[in-house]
Specification:
- The longest helix has 15 residues, at 2-16.
- The protein starts with a helix and ends with a helix.
- With 76 residues, the protein is mainly α.
- The chain is built from 4 helices and no strands.
- The chain is globular and about 30 Å long.
């Protein structure tokens, strides 16, 4: 639950900072936020695991992680 809350904060902060999700698959954005949140919570999950569960490609996951990290400036 902690990771989920962090993922939501990451997405909210990115949107506040000007992240434009138009034309991007929402599953990819959610998967990236969960991936980042899992790293923050020390619940290490691989990109392969998360991309498989979210049904997005690993490339999509990596691209969205880069986007979110650029705009979210990492949550406290």
């Amino acid at each position: 639950m902690k990771c989920r809350n962090i993922a939501v904060k990451i997405i909210e902060k990115a949107k506040e900072s000007g992240f434009n999700s138009a034309g991007k698959d929402p599953k990819g954005i959610a998967a990236a936020a969960i991936y980042i949140g899992s790293k923050i919570c020390n619940e290490n999950r691989t990109q392969k695991e998360i991309s498989k569960l979210a049904r997005v490609t690993e490339v999509t996951l990596r691209m969205r992680v880069k986007d979110l990290q650029k705009y979210a400036n990492m949550v406290d």
